[in-house]
TrEMBL record:
Nucleotide-binding as UniProt keyword: no
TM regions (residue ranges): none
Name of the protein: DM13 domain-containing protein
DM13 domain location: 51-146
Domain of life assignment: Bacteria
Originating organism: Mycetocola lacteus
Pfam families: DM13
Organism ancestry: Bacteria, Bacillati, Actinomycetota, Actinomycetes, Micrococcales
Signal peptide, first to last residue: 1-25
Region Disordered, annotated ranges: 20-43
Length: 146
Protein backbone atom coordinates (compact mmCIF):
# COMPACT_ATOMS: atom_id res chain seq x y z
CA UNK A 1 0.00 0.00 0.00
CA UNK A 2 2.84 2.37 0.89
CA UNK A 3 4.54 1.65 -2.48
CA UNK A 4 1.31 2.41 -4.35
CA UNK A 5 0.93 5.76 -2.54
CA UNK A 6 4.55 6.72 -3.19
CA UNK A 7 4.20 5.74 -6.85
CA UNK A 8 0.91 7.66 -7.17
CA UNK A 9 2.42 10.73 -5.50
CA UNK A 10 5.42 10.57 -7.82
CA UNK A 11 3.15 10.27 -10.86
CA UNK A 12 1.07 13.26 -9.74
CA UNK A 13 4.19 15.35 -9.10
CA UNK A 14 5.64 14.40 -12.48
CA UNK A 15 2.38 15.19 -14.27
CA UNK A 16 2.05 18.55 -12.50
CA UNK A 17 5.66 19.41 -13.27
CA UNK A 18 5.35 18.46 -16.91
CA UNK A 19 2.10 20.33 -17.39
CA UNK A 20 3.60 23.43 -15.75
CA UNK A 21 6.61 23.20 -18.06
CA UNK A 22 4.64 22.37 -21.16
CA UNK A 23 2.22 25.28 -20.95
CA UNK A 24 4.85 28.02 -21.22
CA UNK A 25 6.93 25.88 -23.55
CA UNK A 26 3.95 25.26 -25.78
CA UNK A 27 3.09 28.98 -25.71
CA UNK A 28 6.62 30.04 -26.55
CA UNK A 29 7.17 26.91 -28.55
CA UNK A 30 4.21 27.60 -30.78
CA UNK A 31 5.26 31.17 -31.42
CA UNK A 32 9.03 30.70 -31.50
CA UNK A 33 9.14 28.04 -34.21
CA UNK A 34 6.94 30.22 -36.40
CA UNK A 35 9.19 33.20 -35.76
CA UNK A 36 12.22 31.02 -36.14
CA UNK A 37 10.99 29.68 -39.48
CA UNK A 38 10.17 33.16 -40.72
CA UNK A 39 13.53 34.44 -39.46
CA UNK A 40 15.30 31.65 -41.30
CA UNK A 41 13.24 32.38 -44.37
CA UNK A 42 14.13 36.08 -44.20
CA UNK A 43 17.80 35.62 -43.28
CA UNK A 44 18.92 35.08 -46.90
CA UNK A 45 16.95 38.18 -47.93
CA UNK A 46 18.51 40.00 -44.98
CA UNK A 47 21.93 39.52 -46.56
CA UNK A 48 21.27 42.83 -48.33
CA UNK A 49 18.60 45.25 -47.10
CA UNK A 50 18.47 49.01 -47.49
CA UNK A 51 16.30 52.01 -46.88
CA UNK A 52 16.24 55.80 -47.10
CA UNK A 53 15.78 57.87 -43.95
CA UNK A 54 12.91 60.28 -43.50
CA UNK A 55 12.48 62.63 -40.56
CA UNK A 56 9.66 62.08 -38.07
CA UNK A 57 8.13 64.19 -35.30
CA UNK A 58 9.27 67.47 -36.88
CA UNK A 59 12.91 66.31 -36.96
CA UNK A 60 15.21 66.07 -39.98
CA UNK A 61 17.05 62.85 -40.80
CA UNK A 62 18.52 62.03 -44.22
CA UNK A 63 20.72 59.43 -45.85
CA UNK A 64 20.57 55.70 -46.44
CA UNK A 65 20.99 52.61 -44.30
CA UNK A 66 22.31 49.46 -45.94
CA UNK A 67 22.70 46.06 -44.33
CA UNK A 68 25.14 43.59 -45.87
CA UNK A 69 25.54 40.42 -43.83
CA UNK A 70 26.41 41.47 -40.27
CA UNK A 71 27.19 45.12 -41.04
CA UNK A 72 24.89 48.15 -41.20
CA UNK A 73 26.35 51.15 -43.03
CA UNK A 74 24.96 54.67 -43.02
CA UNK A 75 25.76 56.75 -46.11
CA UNK A 76 25.04 60.42 -46.70
CA UNK A 77 23.67 60.45 -43.16
CA UNK A 78 22.67 63.60 -41.30
CA UNK A 79 20.27 64.29 -38.47
CA UNK A 80 19.05 67.09 -36.31
CA UNK A 81 21.28 67.30 -33.26
CA UNK A 82 20.12 65.47 -30.15
CA UNK A 83 21.66 64.96 -26.73
CA UNK A 84 21.68 61.14 -26.86
CA UNK A 85 21.07 59.76 -30.37
CA UNK A 86 21.09 56.00 -30.90
CA UNK A 87 20.36 53.70 -33.81
CA UNK A 88 17.81 50.88 -33.43
CA UNK A 89 16.45 48.04 -35.52
CA UNK A 90 12.68 47.97 -34.95
CA UNK A 91 9.36 46.83 -36.36
CA UNK A 92 7.73 50.25 -36.11
CA UNK A 93 8.51 53.91 -35.57
CA UNK A 94 6.90 54.64 -32.21
CA UNK A 95 8.29 54.43 -28.66
CA UNK A 96 6.88 50.94 -28.10
CA UNK A 97 8.66 49.67 -31.22
CA UNK A 98 11.94 51.27 -30.11
CA UNK A 99 11.61 49.71 -26.66
CA UNK A 100 10.98 46.30 -28.24
CA UNK A 101 13.74 46.81 -30.82
CA UNK A 102 17.48 46.20 -30.75
CA UNK A 103 19.93 49.01 -30.08
CA UNK A 104 22.97 49.19 -32.32
CA UNK A 105 24.72 51.98 -30.43
CA UNK A 106 25.23 55.71 -30.43
CA UNK A 107 24.94 57.50 -33.78
CA UNK A 108 26.66 60.80 -34.63
CA UNK A 109 24.26 63.37 -36.06
CA UNK A 110 26.97 64.96 -38.22
CA UNK A 111 28.97 61.97 -39.54
CA UNK A 112 27.89 61.14 -43.08
CA UNK A 113 29.37 57.63 -43.06
CA UNK A 114 29.02 55.31 -40.06
CA UNK A 115 29.24 51.55 -39.62
CA UNK A 116 27.57 49.29 -37.04
CA UNK A 117 28.18 45.58 -36.41
CA UNK A 118 25.11 43.36 -36.12
CA UNK A 119 26.72 40.63 -34.02
CA UNK A 120 24.06 37.98 -33.38
CA UNK A 121 21.23 40.16 -34.75
CA UNK A 122 18.97 38.79 -37.49
CA UNK A 123 18.34 41.94 -39.47
CA UNK A 124 15.60 40.23 -41.47
CA UNK A 125 13.51 40.16 -38.30
CA UNK A 126 13.19 43.98 -38.41
CA UNK A 127 11.44 46.46 -40.69
CA UNK A 128 13.10 49.78 -39.81
CA UNK A 129 16.35 51.44 -38.85
CA UNK A 130 15.36 54.16 -36.38
CA UNK A 131 17.25 57.20 -35.10
CA UNK A 132 16.10 57.76 -31.52
CA UNK A 133 17.03 60.27 -28.84
CA UNK A 134 17.20 58.11 -25.74
CA UNK A 135 17.35 61.08 -23.35
CA UNK A 136 14.27 62.83 -24.78
CA UNK A 137 12.46 59.57 -25.68
CA UNK A 138 11.87 60.86 -29.20
CA UNK A 139 12.07 59.21 -32.60
CA UNK A 140 13.96 61.52 -34.97
CA UNK A 141 13.60 59.48 -38.14
CA UNK A 142 13.46 56.06 -39.74
CA UNK A 143 14.49 54.14 -42.82
CA UNK A 144 12.14 51.33 -43.91
CA UNK A 145 14.14 48.24 -44.85
CA UNK A 146 13.47 46.39 -48.09
Amino acid sequence: MKTVLVTAAAAIALTAGLSACSSPASDTGSSKPAASHSAEATTPAAASLSGTFAGLNDKKVAGTAKIDGDTLTLSGFSSDEGPDLHLYLTNGTDEAAVTAGTTLGAVKFDAASQTFKLDGVKAGDFKYVVVHCDKALAVFGAAPLA
